[in-house]
Design goal:
Blueprint: E1 10-13, E2 18-19, E3 29-30, E4 33-34, H1 38-41, E5 45-46, E6 62-77, E7 80-91, E8 101-105
């Protein structure tokens, strides 16, 4: 069972830049850090993506555009699934990658779910 993501989690784009996520809720916390919801991931940004060589047709990640996997089926906050350590998805990057961001470190080991 994968860990629930929190504001202590580390997510990165495929080019190595940190994905910045803000929690929209504080009702569910793990070790003092708010759990992240799938909707939080959809508002995440990637302000320092190095994929910027326009001569090669590249464009930086900038923001998350989809969460392909990693939404809990069991644990929800106000009806919205929490995000899990298995989460990954796409960004605005060019060329488009099947998984342009992923979880590097869930940031906690106390709470796991489906």
């Amino acid at each position: 069972m994968p860990e629930v993501l929190t504001t202590a989690s580390v997510l990165t784009c495929a080019h190595g830049a940190r994905v910045l996520v803000t929690a929209s809720q504080s009702a569910l916390t793990v070790d003092g850090a708010p759990a992240l919801l799938v909707t939080d991931l959809l508002t995440a940004t990637v302000p320092a993506c190095p994929n910027i060589d326009a001569s090669k047709g590249q464009a930086p990640c900038v923001k998350v555009t989809a969460v392909s996997v990693g939404a809990s089926r069991l644990l929800k906050v106000s009806g919205t699934p929490v995000a899990l350590a298995t989460a990954k998805g796409t960004t605005q990057a060019v060329p488009v990658l099947p998984f342009a961001w992923q979880v590097e470190d869930p940031g906690q080991t106390l709470l796991r779910t489906d």
